[in-house]
Amino acid sequence: MEKRRLGRIGHETSVLVYGAAALGDVTQDVADASIAQALAAGINHLDTAASYGDAELRMGPSVPAIRDRVFLATKSTERRAEDAWRQLNRSLELLNTDHIDLWQVHAVCDLEELDKVFAPGGAIEAFVRAKDEGIVSWVGITGHTEAAPVVHAEALRRHDFDSVLTPMNYHLYTADAEFHDNFDVLYGLVQDRDVALRTIKAIARKPWIGDHQYATWYEPFTDAEDIRAAISWVLSTFPYIAGLATAGETTLLGKAIEAEANRMDLDEATARLAAIHDYASIFV
Prior knowledge:
By secondary structure, this protein is of the alpha/beta class. It has 12 helices and 12 strands.
């Protein structure tokens, strides 16, 4: 699997980042098998969150044996420093480790949420403390919605985050001119500052209509060639993106692995994605 430099962090990360939201509501056997599948494919970067159901609990049994071989990231949705600190310690316990490589302020989707993070006694104080004390090596910020690039660019102006995790897929970038322009600003900013950039929602197709058939909160692409096109497009269009998170559904991991191993060229990927008639933003 291709590896790319994770900004100033320096880790040579697999371009597929294991999206542990997939472990939020599965058995331990399913979780163990999914993590083993990822490692066997060359994925060396695991990304989870305290808010992903039982994901940290399910990942925990695998961590001690592989801790020195993987880059381990988790997240907190807490907005007060004391609550974030408490959540970090819980994450360490569940993940069976004494150290997190990347701890991220999670789901900062608008400027109001960003203000909460930076308010007196806000979560940023816990993140700075954790890095100063060596409990975490690096700190980052994440978020969803079309506003994420604007919010994350502003976050970088307020604090020298080491990493950004933000949405990107073909439809978002080509169908929404405002998102396109805002992402380009963020893309330039992270490169100027040598900030790690990872993305989410590469294979998101549209909002769910009717019953959910997968664990994802959006309807994903499931056709192998569509997934191949979607992953190929992101990785080819944005070479500074160090990695993209796999979907929050264990049964789609194998298709993502195959897609990365057999990528389309950019023109072929673009043509296939442009022809999908019901492709839409999942942020409604």
